[in-house]
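Hi Y.,

Following your request, here is the sequence exactly as I used it, all 581 residues.
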Amino acid sequence: MQWDLQVVGLTRYKVWMSDLLAQPLSSTEFLVVDVETNGKAGDDCELTELGAVLVGGGELQDRWETLVGVRAPLSRMIQRFTGISQAMVDEAPAVELVLPDLAEQLEGRVLVGHNIAFDRRVLRQAFARADLEWPDVPTLCTVALARRFAPLARRRGLKPLAEALGIEVEIAHRALADAETTARVLCALLPRLVVHAGTVGDAVELLKAAARRPRRPRAGRTIARQGRAEHRVDVSGLPDEPGVYLFRNAGGQVLYIGKSVSLRARARSHFQPSSASQGWVAQATMVDHRTTSSELGALVLEQRLIKEMRPPGNVRMKHDDPYVYLRCRLDIAYPVLEVAPAPAQGRSVTIGPLRGRRAATELMEQLNSLFTLRHCGRALRLREYPSAYGQMGRCLSPCLNDLDPNLYRRRLDEALALFTGDGDGGAALLAHVESEMRQASAEQRYERAAWLRRRLRRLRELTADLAGLQAIHARPRLVVAPHPRGGAADAFWLVGGRLVDWGPTHPIDGGASLADRSAKALRSGDGRGSTTWLAPDEVDEMRVVTTYLASHDLPGLDLAPDLDAGRLGAFADAATAAAVA
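Below is the corresponding structure, written out as C-alpha cells. Let me know if you'd prefer a different format.
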C-alpha cells in the first residue's frame, strides 16, 4: 500500500511538472531567490539568510526575506562580509520553520537565481537537514541568461552585470537586496528570452545549451581582433549631419545603433585600427541612417530606436555625467526623498537634474530634518523606540506605528510644494526657512531660531551650487535645439514631466505648426495632476532630455493656452538665428 501511494505521488508530480514546463513563458510566475550562508563548504554550509522576490508580468511583485538560525557560530570574516551578526542569527527562526514557507511559494513557479546551481545546492541541503522534501521545480539562471542574450557584458558577477544593463545597485551581499537585483536582471533580459522560447521547457533547454557552450580559446579572440582592421563597411553614403546610424548584418538585423552630430565621421571611426574591439563590428555589412536637426534630436531618436530594436551591440545606455535627481515616489504610505541617477516612474515627484550627488544628498537630508520626514529607506521597519532623528525632533517617527499617514503626507506635500510651483524652488526654500526662523524668534524659541539660521546659511550655499531646483513637471515648456551649423532646429515640448512631442521646426509657416502642436501638447498633459506619471519606458528618455538641457543653454518658452502662432514663430526664428550668430 505504501508503494502504491509513492507511485501515485510520483505520477502526480510528473503531470504537474509537465504542465509547468508546457506553460507559456510570458504568463509564468518566477520566484527569484538569493541565499547568504556561513561561508563554509560541504556539509558544514548553513543557510543564514533567505530573500525571495516574486516576478510576474515582467514586474517585481511580492518580496519576502528572513534570517535563519544556525548551529555553528559565524566567523568574524563572514559577519563583516555579509553584515549578518551572530546576535541576528541567534534570534532568527530555525531552518525547519522557514523552509515550509519557501516550499509553498515555489508551488507552480519557476525558481530563478544568479548562479542558481549554488543557491539550489544550499537550499536542497537545508531541506534535507530539516527532513523536508525538496520541491524540484524548473530553474533558470541569470548568468546563463546573460551569456545568451547579453554577450557583450563580459563581467557576469551580479553587480557588474546589473550595472551593464543600466540597473542601479545600492546594497550587495544581503539576501533580499541581491534577490531584487537578480529579479531586475531577469526583467531586463526576459523579453529577449520570450522571443526565443515560447514555454518554460523551451527556456530551460535553451539556457542549458548556453551554459554548456564552450568558451572560445584566447588565441581565437586574438586572431579576430587582428583581422578586424581589414573589415570595413562603406559609410561614404552617410551625410555630414546630426542623426542616428544603424549597422546591420547580411540578414538585415540591426547590430548597433549610435548617434552623432556628424554621421559619416562617427560611423567611420568604428573601423579604425585604434578602435576598441567590439563583437558586432565583425558581423556588420551595411549601414543606414536617420537625420535630425539637432544633437538633442539625435539623442532622443537613438534612445527610442535602441528600445524598439534592442540591438545586441547596445547593452545599455551609459550615463557617465554627474547629474542626479531628488525624487519622491508616492506609492507607499510614508514616502521618502531619495537621490537617484534617473527620474522616478509612476506616481511621483522628481526634482532636477542636480549636478553632484554629494550636494543633492545633503539637500535631501536638510529637507528631511526641516520637515521632519523619514531619513530611512523605502522599507519601513517598525521600532519600539524612536530613532536618533526622532529623538532629536527631526522625524515624525512613523516606525512607531502610531502616526496618522495624513499628517505625514501634509508635511511631505509642504516640502514638495516648494519645488512644484512656477517659481524658483531654491528661492522658495530659502524664503520658507527664513519665515520659520522669524516665527520661532517671535515665539521666543531662540534655540530653534538659531538652528534655522545655521540651516539657512548652509542652504544658501547649496541652492547656489545646485541649479535646477524645480520639479521636472512644474512648467510646460517649448525648447528649441538648433542645428550644430545653423539653418535648422528641432522643437521639444515638455509637459507633465514628459517629452510629449518633438520634431523639426518649419519657419516658413509663420509658427502655425508650432501653435497647433503646442495646443496638442498642453492637452496631453491635462488630468495628470500635480505629480508626474512617467511610464517606465520613458524614464531613460526623460533623463537624456533633462540632463542635456541642464548642460546646454537652450532657448525655452513657457507654454500657455493663449500663445499665438506669431509669437511662437518669432521665438523659433530668434532661437535659430542666435545659434547661427
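The chain has four domains: 10-212, 228-309, 323-465, 477-580.

Thanks again,
Q.
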